[in-house]
Amino acid sequence: MSEAALDLDDISKGYAIGTPGEVRVLEGANLRLQPGEAVALVAPSGAGKSTLLHIAGLLDTADSGTVRLGGVDLTHATDRKRTEARRREIGFIYQFHHLLPEFSAAENIILPQLANGSAQGAAAARAGELLTRVGLAPRASHRPAALSGGEQQRVAFCRALANAPRVLLADEPTGNLDPATSDTVFNTLMDLVRGTGLAALVATHNPELAARMDRTLRLDAGRLVPG
């Protein structure tokens, strides 16, 4: 078996809410995500899927357990190393695209590359390549306000892939789109996963989209089980 893109081993997490005690959100959750694999994460609101994504994306820390990216243990890494790993290894997509409104589609994709140390010319070329891949090259100079919701989300996909990450984490990426646009955007996501060897973990409430991925996991009492 090839080296996993992402390993979550025995992840547990709780939060103190009021008095006394705490609420356990994750309890011994395990996940092994392979390159080129798309996995759906299905759970009701409040079940802990966003917490799991944040831990997988090094935005939060677990109370116990191990997080590995490409075989590298980052569980107890310094804040600096975690930030570097996020920039280099992880792409994030959210339900609301969070594009910077004052910048064009291309510039929204160029900026994270510059933050990661890429040269301006290389970053612009990469942005053009990604926008072409999702059919938005003619819209490269448009600001988000001039793009449809589906176009904005496709730009967000490109931004997430700008630094060629190992892992893509998506939290309800089609949740605010109409069914036809959602289908188009989902197809774009899957094309990118298949075409780049990216590993994707996608939280969704949509059972039809979940069924089109390689497998489905759901959170049950803080553990990941086959869906």
List key phrases describing it.
alpha/beta, 227 residues, globular, single chain, 4-stranded antiparallel sheet, 6-stranded mixed sheet
Task: Describe the protein in words.
The chain is an alpha/beta fold. 35% of the residues lie in helices and 27% in strands. It contains 7 helices and 10 strands. The protein has a 6-stranded mixed beta sheet, sandwiched between helices. The radius of gyration is 18 Å and the shape is globular. The mean pLDDT is 88.
Largest sheet: 6 strands, mixed
Determine Rg (CA atoms, Å): 18 Å
Q: Please write the string of helix (H) and strand (E) elements.
A: EEEHEEHEHHHEHEHEE
Q: Helix count? A: 7
Inertia-based shape: globular
Query: How would you classify the helix and strand content by structural class?
Result: alpha/beta
Mean pLDDT: 88
Strand order of the largest sheet: 6-7-8-3-9-10
Would you spell out the secondary-structure blueprint of this structure?
Blueprint: E1 6-16, E2 22-33, E3 38-42, H1 49-56, E4 64-69, E5 72-73, H2 79-89, E6 90-94, H3 105-115, H4 120-133, H5 149-161, E7 167-171, H6 179-196, E8 199-203, H7 207-211, E9 215-220, E10 223-226
Parallel strand pairs: 3-8, 3-9, 6-7, 7-8
Antiparallel strand pairs: 1-2, 1-4, 4-5, 9-10
